[in-house]
Target: Gamma-soluble NSF attachment protein
Amino acid sequence: MADARRISEAKEHIAAAEKSLKTSFFKWKPDFGSAAHEYEQAAVCFKNAKQPLEAKRAYINAAGAHRNNDALFHAAKQYEQAAFLMRDQKDWGEVMGLFDKAASLYSEHGTPDTAAICLEKAAKMMETVNPRMSLEFFQKACDVVELEDRPRQIVDYLGKSARILVRIQDYDEASKVLSKERDLRHDLGDIDATNRTVSALVLVHLKRGDYVAADKMCGIAMGSGYAESDVASALACLLDAYDKQDEDTFHQMLNLPLFRYMDNDYVKLARSLRLPGGSRPKQKAVAPMGEMGPVGGAEGGEELVDEDNDEEFDLK
Model:
């Protein structure tokens, strides 16, 4: 009964909106402002009546009215509302199209920060559903903030993109994105973050089986506090063990806190590494190098596990 009343109320708002758009001998221009308001009210009524498709149409009509009224920011908001409705319906193609329209209108309105946030919302929403689509939206967000010269936002989006690429095992593209991230972080003078990115990039190159690229990356990273860091020492030992095909040392190095406390995607990547033609033996204890602590963010903390026998490495 309540839903029927809400639907009836929504139809009244739509009728009022359509009336506002009509012209006559004494009314030469449509009243887009009033129409937009009525469509918004109709959308809320349809939403409360659990009629998502009708609510979406009303939000889109409201967006059109706002756009014709040169209220681009408000038009973008209505597209976002429609996108969230379609998310609940799992209509992902529609969701992405609506977010794209919203972001374009935010940019056109002159609010690129809001456009970037909108694109980031879309990217995060698609991370598990469609990682490739998520990457597209992170790239669009990068393009928006790059025009505004926001390097810190750019490296944030690059970092998120790199983790998705590692997750879907596109290591070639991940290495390119991480290289860009590393260069930008270096230019920003963020030594710790640069070292974390170098560590991730070395792991990716080793997963690709490209020892030369991994070694070259460490060579490029020398300077700006990197050479004296525990990170440089650990990576040098890791690469030396890889080059000499020393399995024991190689896996002991991967068991250091440097790699165990990276973001989870890199922890899993480190856990999956093998020497060419080698296997993954159960590990013995290894003493930490100096005062080296967690590196790579607070999201990690996952311990390395031998995937062949599901036993945890002995870290005592």
